[in-house]
Amino acid sequence: MKKYKRVFLIVLDSLGIGDAHDAQQFDDLGANTLGHICEKVGGLDVPCLEGMGLGNIGNFKGIHALKNQLAYTARLEEVSKQVFLKNSLNYLKKRLDVNVLEIMQKVEQKF
Fold this sequence. Notes:
Layout (H helix, E strand, L loop, with lengths): L32 H8 L6 H6 L28 H15 L4 H11 L1
Helix pairs in contact: 3-4
């Protein structure tokens, strides 16, 4: 793997790009902010974001998928607090010498 001296992280937080796997549970089917904007305006012309691979993570009018994008792209979804806490506690248990049971009890008291 190539080493980089710098990394630029661009986060388009809350820019909806399609349904989450559990959208129906939250009456959120059809959520796709970027897709709806692209449709409403007849397509977007965003060559820099397109070049970085925005078209590779969804189907958006005017934004094309590329075979050779210039950046890494990812589509993230929120996880429940329980899943997040479980994964975090497992990480702590593996990496640090901490009493995970004690931490879990404190966390459970807050929720």
